[in-house]
Amino acid sequence: MMNIKKTIGFWVVGLLLCTGCSSLDMDPVSEITDKNYWKTPEQFESFVYGLHARFRSQSWNFFLLGEARSDVFGDKPFGGEAAQGMERYPLNTLNADNPGLKAYGDLYQNLNQMNLFIRRAETAEVLSEPVRHYYLGQVYGLRAYYLFQLFCSWGNVVFTEEPSLDFEMGQLAREATPAAEILAQVKRDLESSLTHFGADYSFHDQRSLWSKAATLMLKGEVYLWGAHREGGAADARVAAEALDDLRQHMGTSELDLLPSYQEVFAYRNKGNREMIFVLHNQLFEYQLWNGNNDLYPQADYLDKYYNADGTPIDLKVENNWGIMRLMVKLDNFRRFLPGDTRRDVTLKDVYRRTPQGNLELVGLYPHKYPGVMNGSTRVRCDDYPIYRYADWLLMRAEAKALLGEDPSAELNAVRRRAFGTAYAEATVGYPHQSVDRHPLEAILQERFFEFLLEGKRWNDLRRWGDATVVAHTLAAADRLWWPIDRKTLTDNPLLKQTPGYETGGHTEHVGR
């Protein structure tokens, strides 16, 4: 039933987009179509499902925004495939002509539909008050998430709370809203979401629908961003309070770490108690990252390589076919400590034999999302986590470290699960690793190991601050935001290129 609702909802949201498109892909809604909708509770429900389905369809863009420019990637594909411009992400050589993502990653399409839903739901007489409030809690939370991603990526971006209804295209051009105002809007939307959810902390549809728990996680993330900057301890306390609110209202049967890291992502284990909010994928319905295969090798050559034990790679097992454009850096495989189970769950290591007969590590590709077999073909249809309980633990540890408190309980819970039977607190527990001399650096490193290939690394580095990004990546200090593609600038003459990417030099920085 959930799959049918999402399919219908995606169709409905698409139907309410007219064929014209704007400079920001804020597709205007047909006024005639809009007036003929919103007649029944089922139509509102379908629209909410449609917003989530469109979110899912943009998962690859969210992944690129959150991870592609980080230190995760950077080595050339071991099969010799041409990167076809995707090397610009980890090399951080993006510009207006090679922006990586065009039209702000198409995020405005769904953002406009959220504006429309909020306007209609706030006055709809066909909805009961509990249903109205729950839907508005969801959509204000979703809008806050989208706006925060735009803020983290571009800083100054166009925003209006008004849906685009029956206007002429030439009237759409708008100046960007300053980054500080975008962040303020994110915070207002978070509070609106929490107010509408009230005391309802429930999960629905295998945790694939936005919930109060998701809003509280996002609030923690937003205020931790500020805590690393001018917000300081005050913002760290707000983040801690939001995270504690979530923990206090959910028992361990509803929210906890799973004993096995591998089981967190297992196809048969969807909606497990570690997940807080996921983008749901399903065999015969929808594939991970909208079916993108740029991180996976081709079948044509994979069986010419070897496993770590020297046996040839079996294509009946490792049949994750793709055309690799981005490869995880080999050094990242070596960063994991011995006994850390997350390494082999997350990454598949590929070897070649040297002329001397030795095995040499030459390639890596994702193993975290193994999918399922459909006949002789492996289909990547695992859920994609946006928030899970391990994130709660490490954000809570982060807030503690920023406040000068002891983060050992949360950090060691994550490490204990990671090492399993190999866990020895005296050697790998906090504060006994060498990195633990600097608690925030230890938490940042733990987040790397825990969330590799979950679209978080670049945004984590950005949250920690400009110097951290420059120290870990190839990004220049004045190019930590994303460029705006040339077509978008042409279509909207009131927009200005992101500072740092203008032809001819440097301008003032927007708020970080």
Automatic annotation (TrEMBL):
Localization per Swiss-Prot or TrEMBL: Cell outer membrane
Segments forming domain RagB/SusD: 363-468
A Pfam family reported for this protein in Swiss-Prot or TrEMBL: SusD_RagB
Region (Disordered): 493-512
CDD domains on file: SusD (cd08977)
A GO term from the CC aspect: cell outer membrane
UniProt xrefs under InterPro entries: SusD_RagB_dom, TPR-like_helical_dom_sf
Name of the featured protein: RagB/SusD domain-containing protein
